[in-house]
Amino acid sequence: MSQLCSIEKCIRISRGLCDCCQQYLCLQHLNEHNALLISQLNPLADEINALEYRLQILNIQKIIHNGRQKLEQWRQDCYKMINSLFEQKCQELDQIVNETVEEQREKLNQIQTKIIELINAQETTHEDVNSLKSNIHQLETTMNNIEQTCFTINTRPLLIDNKFVLIKKTTEHELDLSTLSPVYDTIHRLDESFRLLTTNDRYLLIHQHPNLCLFDREMNIVKQALWSYGEIQDMCWSSTLDRFIVLGENNIFLIDENTMSVNNVQSIEERDLMSCTCSDTVLFASTNEPASSIMQFTLFSEMEFIGEWKYPLTLNPLADEINELGDRLKTLNIHKKIDYSFEQNCQELHQFVNEKDGQQREELN
Question: What pLDDT does residue 118 have?
Answer without folding.
Answer: 85
